[in-house]
Amino acid sequence: MAATGATRPAHLGWLAALPPAAVFVGLIASIGSTSAGQVVTFGFNWVPSLDVSLTFRIDGLSVLFGLMVSGIGAAVALYANAYMAGHPRLPRFFLYLTLFTASMLGVVLSDNILALFVFWELTSVSSFMLIGFDSDKAEARRNARQSLLVTAGGGLALLAGLILLGQVAGSYSIAEINTAGDIVRADPLYVPILVLVFLGAFTKSAQVPLHFWLPNAMAAPTPVSAFLHSATLVKAGVFLLARLHPALGGTDVWLWTLLPVGAVTAVWASMMALCQRDLKLMLAYTTVMALGALTLFLAVETQIGIAAAMTFVLVHALYKASLFMIVGGIDHATGTRNLMALGGLRRALPVSAGAAALAAFAMAGFPPFLGFLGKELKYEGALAIAEAPFAMTAAALAANAMMVAVALTVAIRPFWGPPTEAAERAHGNHWAIVAPPAVLASLGLILGLAPGLVGSILVGPAVEAVLQGTTAPELKLWHGVTVPLLLSVVTVALGSILFWRMRQIRGMLDALVRLLPTTGDRAYDTVMGWLNDVALWQTRLLQGDRLRRDFLVIFAAATAAVATVVALVPELSFASLSTIPEGPAIGAVVLILVGVAATVGVEGRLTGLAALGTVGVGVALVFLMHGAPDVAITQLLVETLVIVIAAAVLLRLPRTPEVPVRSTPARWRDALIALLAGGTITGITLMVVDGPLDLSVTEAFEAASVPEAFGRNIVNVILVDFRALDTLGEIAVVVIAGLACLALLRGTGLIQRRRRRAAEGPRP
Amino acid sequence: MKSGPILNTSTRGLVPLMIAFSVFLLWRGHNLPGGGFIGGLVASAALVLDGLTFGPGMIRRRLRADPVTVAAVGLLVGVIAGLLGWFAGSPFLTGLWWKPIVGGAELPLGTPLLFDIGVYLVVVGTISALWLALAERRQGGED
After folding, report:
1. Which residues face A173 on adjacent strands?
2. What digits encode the pLDDT tens for the residues A672-707?
3. pLDDT above 50: residue A2
4. Pick from A458, A363, A435: which is nearest to A405 by CA?
5. Where are the alpha helices (DSSP H) in A543-628?
6. Which one-letter DSSP state was computed for residue A53?
7. What ipTM is given for this predicted complex?
């Protein structure tokens, strides 16, 4: 571990920090117009036929979130550059990180809900890549898969919800949906839409009981935890609730879903945070707490409640990203994040100790930090929830007091007290590991000293965007002696007691957790276990270890399905059966029949294969006689190559068949199914030929072929011009199928090598 | 793989002819039977014949590039052919034509031909990759 401190960072991180920094500057430049209440939109039509446009919308809400994403994104890129220095897959890391930053900016800036959804899913995918970045660890792989399944599952629900919402509102533009709020709320589909959107938001923003993936996401490298899993990605759900607040909010269902979910999440996560030993996990649970608090405040319609949410989003992003990076620095310097093994690090990491104190003060909500403002607003907002002021204030008080205790723990335990063994071994950190969190933590203080400015340019415009038009309350540090101030004093007192009695409280919480019948994480494992069992059972049932059985199942099932449809068609006539082949066609038919007889009759696989080829040649002749030379040539060539490649496969098989010769009843059964399958296909073909042939498409192509596409071979003109997109799809499929075959062929070789190695015993 | 003198000699003569014929089919496909897919199949058949006679190494020598790369380049060429129309302001994959007069005759060149070349490369790359994967495994024993 000590050696990593000596590795000098590369320049890649500087490059990765540039795009978000540029966006940051651009958004700062647009503050002038958004704080004046203007909305800037720009973009282009992406898929006009589906009403999907790539339009971006810069208003108070997107500026607030966009600034956090781009600003922290740039800071994290610099931090990761030093933190991950010397990692062999550093370029890949920055690729994923940049992909995430871009997608997250897409989520917060999109004006079209379908485009927003695409970006939303891209954040899930890039998060999956980043959680599983240390892919040689089973835990990282498992947790990455878990986060993907939970968030992408929620994403599917969200897609359905957004499509319904677009249908009901008559537009997929957020601006238009938000002005159609009354129509949406009155629609019978309102509740289904709400449930689906909530599923998306709650999975992404880790609300209890769907929160379990977030602490597990800590398997990701620390820069990722600081950026994705505290400051940005997990806020996407909260952002969505704020974004759609004008269209969906303001009803009882909205209020009474978000209030309890948010309150339970906040309180439960705070308790979980208190009983963690790993600093990173502790911070992860406080993130869940923050997401719960944000959800709680987005339930309401009051200005003060929304202002509390918007201020807290900013406060939390600053202190949490900073604390995560500091914990990463501790891990980097000492090789451990275990609270029990840390202490007295202030000499080795003096700047980090100071930054941790700043961030923790903001987290605990001490004046004059921005966190104090946030906490005051939270209490004011909770008291203003007319439906349940006491319950909500109590929940906020409990959660905040526990946050104070966690803040004190994170700021004091690792840095103060007598140095532990780990602290003795600690080395100093590169400045790029120390500086970004220090800057973010200082911002929490600086912004707190300028509450009027924060209120007028950041929080105010965001509140106006959420509540559409109403002016936001002014932000002030000193309100006089009010109930929120008294509650703040109580919070700090309670938090200090919790910190002082940490050991006992942790014991109690541990006992409580043990009493739980199950946790989300364990329930996930159970469900995944069932899923695996079902898949295994179904695979064994349908795809045995014999190819012959597989084919039997496939052909029998396909024939049964198709034959049912054919039998249901009324007035089935086989008029074209009366057409008797004549002239050269008789030759082709004879060739096909002889080929079939030979295929069935001959012994040996290669001979059978060659006989089957004869059938193909006969069919090609039929094509040729009916004026389709291109199809005939293709048929001939494919037939030839299939035989050559199939022969290459067959030659690999053992010469003597290990499969016992089939019994006579089995042969009759196979023959019956083969005849039925062939008969059904023949029936369908005859039905098609029987109907009147609509030549309008053919005629249109014939007419356009030479004047528009300069080609006389219509088949080719269709392939490369009229329907070229289909062909592009097909050649893509050819390449993908080829790659899959290669993987399969090489993969089995790998398994054989492994088996052989295992048979030879362990290598010395 | 054993091959006698008859196969050896005829392969030496046939393969260049087949390759030339496949390019001819590709070129004339827009007006007469042929095209990228058929041309690609003929070229693949030529390569496989080469491989059957002289061993898989012959295919690699003739292709020079890895067959998977050939297929991927083909796909890329197809996409580029589509993008050219898009850059010209028309929908993706719209045909663009350029008809220079060469030696008194009009030579029709266009993005559909480029697209067909992409199809040709995809077919050649994929089929030879598959055949090579099978043949080389057999040659090298279990691996």
Report:
1. A112
2. 999 999 888 888 887 777 777 778 888 888 888 888
3. no
4. A363
5. 547-568, 584-601, 605-625
6. E
7. 0.89
Residue of B113, B122, B128, B131 to mutate, interface with A, max A Cβ within 10 Å: B122
B2 has a chain A CB within 8 A of its CB: no
% chain A with pLDDT above 70: 93
Closest CA of chain A from B63, distance in Å: 17
**How far B110 CA sits from the closest chain A CA (Å)?**
10
Q: Among partner residues A633, A652, A710, which is closest to B138 by beta-carbon distance?
A: A652
The residue among A204, A249, A212 whose CA lies nearest residue A228 is A204
A728 touching B (Cβ < 8 Å)? yes
Report how many helices (DSSP H) and strands (DSSP E) chain A contains, helices first.
33, 2
Mean pLDDT of chain A, nearest integer: 87
Q: Per the CB < 8 Å rule, is A728 touching B133?
A: no
Q: Where are the beta strands (DSSP E) in B1-143?
A: 97-98, 101-102, 105-106, 109-110
| A415 and A349 Cβ atoms separated by less than 8 Å | yes
Best B93, B97, B123, B127 residue to mutate vs chain A (most A CBs within 10 Å): B93
Token duo for residue A547? 């190819």
pLDDT recorded at residue A475: 76
Contact of B122 with chain A, judged by CB distance below 8 Å, is answered with yes
Q: Of B36, B48, B108, which has the smallest distance from its Cβ to A644's Cβ?
A: B48
What amino acid is encoded at A27 in this protein? L
Task: Determine, for residues A716 and B42 on separate chains, whether the beta-carbon distance falls below 8 Å.
Answer: no
pLDDT at A34 over 90: no
Residue with the bigger pLDDT between A514 and A761: it is: A514
Mutation to test the B interface, candidates A652, A720, A728, most B Cβ within 10 Å:
A720
Cβ-Cβ contacts under 8 Å, A648 against chain B: 131, 134-135, 138
| CA diameter of chain B | 59
Of A651, A720, A734, the CB nearest to B115: A720
Q: Which residue has the higher pLDDT, A603 or A641?
A: A641
Spatial CB neighbours of B17, under 8 Å, sequence gap ≥ 6: none
Cβ pairs A/B, distance under 8 A: 147
Q: Do A711 and B31 touch (CB under 8 A)?
A: yes
Q: Which residues are paired to B97 by β-bridges? A: B110
Cα–Cα separations (whole angstroms), residue A481 to A374, A486, A489, A491: 17, 7, 11, 15
Q: Residue B90: what pLDDT?
A: 75
Full DSSP string of A608-620:
HHHHHHHHHHHHH
- Peptide bond preceding A368 in cis form (omega within 30 of 0): yes
Average pLDDT for chain B: 85
Tell me chain A's radius of gyration from C-alpha atoms. 33
Query: A119 with A204: CB under 8 angstroms?
Result: no
Distance between CA atoms of residues A206 and A194, nearest Å:
17
Of A649, A727, A734, the CB nearest to B134: A649
Q: What is the C-alpha to C-alpha distance for residues A189 and A76, in angstroms, rounded to an integer?
A: 42
- What's the full length of chain A, in residues? 764
Residues 598-627 of A with CB under 8 A from B: none
The residue extents of the domains of chain B are 5-139
Three-state SS at A583: coil
- Place A6 in a pLDDT band, splitting at 50, 70 and 90: very low
DSSP reduced 3-state for A220: coil
Give the tens place of pLDDT for each residue, A641-684. 888 888 877 777 666 555 566 678 888 888 899 999 988 888 88
The per-residue pLDDT for A577 is: 63
Q: Is some CB atom of chain A closer than 8 A to the CB atom of B107? A: no
Nearest CA in chain A to B135: A648
**What are the distances in angstroms from CA A744 to CA A275, A645, A737, A741, B124?**
48, 15, 10, 5, 20
